[in-house]
Structures are given as structure tokens and as C-alpha cells.
Write a structure and sequence with these properties.
Layout: H1 11-21, H2 30-43, E1 47-51, H3 54-64, E2 72-75, H4 82-89, E3 93-96, H5 108-117, E4 121-125, H6 136-145, E5 149-153, E6 176-180, E7 193-197, H7 200-210, E8 214-215, H8 224-227, E9 228-229, E10 232-233, E11 239-240, H9 251-261, H10 264-282, E12 288-289, E13 304-308, H11 310-313, H12 317-326, H13 342-346, H14 355-363, E14 364-367, H15 375-388, H16 392-401
Parallel strand pairs: 2-3, 2-4, 4-5, 5-6
Antiparallel strand pairs: 1-7, 6-7, 8-11, 9-10, 12-13, 13-14
Helix pairs in contact: 1-9, 2-9, 3-4, 3-7
The structure holds pyridoxal-5'-phosphate (PLP).
Pyridoxal-5'-phosphate binds next to helix 3 and helix 4.
Length: 402
């Protein structure tokens, strides 16, 4: 079975994790700091704060942005639920701005209209869908007009670059950028997340919030009589000054992420090569559209998404997925628009309509893309997908059923 996405682990990765396990510190330690520096330097941001996973990182970012009841967070409907849930965690209201039909990213025109039509917009969370960076200059300009912070959800986009060629996560047009290192992403940490920022105050807040809102920094202590004895800091002492969480990542996970990071360019190059091959052979199949085609060089290429005309194929999407699976080819749908989720609908959080996101969802199918695919795997996917559009697959399946 060729899944739609898969991590790639080698013996170096395993050795790196085992080395931590033979040491003293299993929870957060020097590997986390090393990983943070590695990512900050790679993307070109001043600070990085690691976290237990991407969802935790988004929650921390929402807390650091001081979002709360009465505030609105605008994101895209075409994303994983976590991009919007981070508003709900802090009591804010998520609202959705439609996507551009080709890039499948938040459309600045729709964002502008959405921001003008709702109250209390305090944060904008664009998502670099499938790895393709959004138009951050335009989004930042709209955010400024409304006095909103920008938190980039770059969970798909490590290794991607903006249209000026600079790397995703440098926060030139954002206050914070969030990454995920879930195994299906480019870099696997098991579970893992990280936030980059250039703002020192946000950085310090994120550090506090990640660790129970608790500080051991002597200069920050406020309860002087309890904290000091004869002018000396008490060695056991710590203070909780905010309501934080335990969202630390372990050194075992960071050792894996560091080892994986050394292979990022190789991972990216192979993903680009496969995407380019798909782009070439699928370019002229009637009934198959390739959003984001031509933009692969700027993308992290986390996912290869297609738009299929299921009517023209003569099968429902479910049938296509089962048919592909029967040939050993996995597929998935990214994403069901978030406001379609029952939790959102039940709370009246789905406002307005999103024609582009809805039209895309009707036709969406993600096909396999990951570093470890062999050339034979790629050709097998190409064969199975092409056959859907030739009529051959239909008759072969009908013969099989007969
Ligand atoms: C766009 C997006 N945001 C956030 C997340 C959450 O990341 P994690 O799974 O690391 O919590 C994901 C994960 O799939 C995602 O795709």
C-alpha cells in the first residue's frame, strides 16, 4: 500500500533518539534548545519556542496574543480543525474567510471583506495549505488596517519560501509562525510543534505559558519576602504568574527532529521531483485539475492535492478512493471545510459561505507524496490515477465485479 503521506526514518535518527535515552534527561533539556536554534537560524527568525505538537503551539500563540472572549480570529475554512480550534480554546470566536480557487490559500480579497464585516478581529491565522505560502504581504497589510496580529499556520510549510524568496517562518509579515512535526509532515518528531517570532516580549510570554506560567528567573520574582533570605534567592523558589500549561516537548522527540532536519533539503528535493512528475503527466487529463501547479518550487510540498471531476469519471469520490486502495494507492481529502464540522455548526460559528472552499472540497483528492516513494511507486500512482480518466479503469472494474 502506498499511503498518501509517510515519514522516513533511518538508522541515524534511531541512534540520535537512543543517545538521549542513555543520558540523564528524558524530558525537555539541551536537545530542545538545540532544535529551537536550528529552526530559528534556518528560517531566519530571532526566536523559536518548541512545543508538544502543532496544536499546542497554536494554543500558546493564541494565549500569547492575549486573545479571549469578545475577540475574533479569522482563518481559512480549508484547513485542519486545529487552526480554528485555537480560538475556541481561549474563548475567542473563529470566523472563516474564503480561499483563492487556484492557490487554495486564504484569499486577501475575501479576508478584507470578512474583517470589514465582523467585530473585534484580533488575530488572523493564514494557513500555508499543502505547503504553499500565502500572500503574506497582502494579509499583513489587512491585519494592520484592523489592528490584528498575524499568526501563520505553517504546519505544512517547513522549507517553503515566500514570493520574495525568503523562508517561511522568518516572521517578516507575521507576529508568530507555527510549525508541526507530526510524522506525516516533512520533518517527524513523533509529535512536535514550534513557534518562531522576532518579538522578544512574545517570546518570553511563550516560554512562560509553555511551562505552567511559572518562572525561576530571580529578576522576575515579585513575592520578595518569600523569594529571598538575607538578600539571597531561595534555591527552591519559583513563581506562577500566569495560567500556563505543560506543553513541553521531550529531548527524545527533539533528537529525532534534529536528525531529521539534517535531511530537510533532501526531503524537499525529492518531494519537488515527484510533484513535478505528477504535474507533467497529469497536465492534460480532462477532468483533472492541478491547483498550485507551477508554484511547487516555493512550496514545502507537504501534500499533492488534485481536483477530480467525479461525474466525468463516473464514480463517486468514495468509490474512487476504494478503487485506488484496491490497487494499493492511498488517498485522502484535505480538508472538509472546518465550519462544516458539527461542533462548529451547533455553535452557530459557521457564518457566511465560502464558494471557493466548498467547490474545492467537492472535488478534492490528495494522492501520495512523500520522500520514500520509489520511482516505481510514483509510476504506479500515475497509472492508477490516469486510468480513472481513460475509461479503462471503469471497464476493468466492471469486468472485475462481474
Ligand atoms: C494546518 C494544520 N494546522 C495545525 C495542525 C496541528 O498540528 P499537530 O498535529 O502537530 O498538533 C495540523 C496537523 O495536521 C495542520 O495540518
Amino acid at each position: 500500500m502506498i499511503p498518501y503521506g509517510r515519514h522516513h526514518i533511518d538508522e541515524d535518527d534511531i541512534r540520535a533518539v537512543a543517545e538521549v535515552m542513555r543520558g540523564e534527561l528524558l524530558t525537555q533539556g539541551p536537545k530542545a534548545a538545540q532544535f529551537e536554534k536550528l529552526v530559528a537560524d534556518y528560517v531566519g527568525a530571532r526566536f523559536a519556542v518548541s512545543a508538544a505538537n502543532g496544536t499546542a503551539a497554536l494554543h500558546l500563540a493564541a494565549l500569547a496574543a492575549e486573545l479571549g472572549p469578545g475577540d475574533t480570529l479569522v482563518t481559512t475554512p480549508n484547513t485542519f480543525i486545529a487552526s480554528a480550534n485555537c480560538a475556541l480554546y481561549v474563548g475567542a470566536r473563529p470566523v472563516f474567510a474564503d480561499i483563492d480557487a487556484f492557490t487554495l490559500n486564504m484569499d486577501p480579497g475575501a479576508l478584507s471583506a470578512t474583517c470589514a464585516s465582523v467585530k473585534g478581529v484580533k488575530a488572523i491565522v493564514p494557513v500555508h495549505f499543502a505547503g504553499l505560502p500565502c500572500d503574506m504581504k497582502a494579509i499583513r497589510a489587512i491585519a494592520r488596517e484592523h489592528g490584528a496580529l498575524v499568526i501563520e499556520d505553517a504546519c505544512h510549510a517547513i522549507g517553503g519560501s515566500y514570493d520574495d524568496g525568503s523562508r517561511v517562518g522568518n516572521c517578516r509579515h507575521a507576529d508568530m509562525t507555527v510549525f508541526s512535526f507530526h510524522p506525516v509532515k516533512l520533518i517527524a518528531a513523533g509529535e512536535g510543534g514550534l513557534i518562531t517570532t522576532n518579538d522578544e516580549a512574545l517570546y518570553k510570554k511563550l516560554l512562560l505559558l509553555r511551562n505552567h506560567g511559572m518562572t525561576r528567573a530571580v529578576s522576575d520574582w515579585t513575592e520578595i519576602p518569600r523569594a529571598f533570605e538575607n538578600g539571597e534567592p531561595n534555591p527552591w523558589y519559583y513563581e506562577m504568574q500566569h495560567l500556563g500549561l505543560n506543553y513541553r516537548i521531550t529531548d527524545m522527540q527533539c533528537a529525532l527532529a534534529i536528525s531529521q532536519f539534517g535531511k530537510l533539503e533532501r526531503f524537499l528535493a525529492r518531494r519537488r521531483e515527484i510533484a513535478a512528475r505528477y504535474d507533467d503527466v497529469f497536465a492534460n487529463l480532462p477532468g483533472l485539475e492541478l491547483p498550485q501547479r507551477g508554484l511547487r518550487n516555493r512550496s514545502g510540498n507537504h501534500l499533492y492535492v488534485t481536483c477530480m471531476d467525479f461525474k466525468a469519471i463516473g464514480r463517486t469520490r468514495g468509490e474512487v478512493m476504494l478503487h485506488l486502495r484496491a490497487q494499493g494507492v492511498g488517498s485522502q481529502v484535505h480538508y472538509i471545510p472546518v465550519p462544516f464540522q458539527p461542533y462548529y455548526k451547533a455553535r452557530g460559528l459557521a457564518e457566511g459561505h465560502w464558494p471557493n472552499a466548498e467547490a474545492y472540497y467537492e472535488q478534492a483528492l490528495t494522492i501520495p507524496l512523500y520522500y520514500g516513494m520509489s520511482d516505481d511507486d510514483v509510476e504506479k500512482v500515475i497509472g492508477a490515477v490516469s486510468a480513472l480518466f481513460s475509461g479503462t479503469a471503469r471497464s476493468a472494474a466492471a469486468a472485475g465485479r462481474a
